[in-house]
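User: I'll paste a sequence; please echo it back and then give the predicted structure.

Assistant: Echoing your sequence first, then the prediction.
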Amino acid sequence: MSLADPLLDNWYLDADTDRSFRVVAIDADNESIEVQYVNGDLGEYDNATWEESAFFPVEAPEDWTAPFDHVVMDDLGYSDPDHHGRDLDDISLNDLLDGEEDR
């Protein structure tokens, strides 16, 4: 009955429950589709259940980040500036040279 195939990061409306959700993972090996609802709850459907359900594609809700108050707007692009090593701007030359001897 579903009129839409599950696509990663797309939003859908469950017509039976009137709840919106986003597909966050598709596991072909286990034939499952993991979803996250607007309120942050996680769910999972198997392929057969998806096909039998009344899911329709919809636009992303206006404030779909609401359950994630700690999310910074710049983080929504899911970029990683790769600041995982020592910050060489905050280290003195002596500290840097001392670290060389420990290697």
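Residues 28 and 44 are 13 Å apart (CA to CA). The first strand starts at residue 11 and ends at 14.
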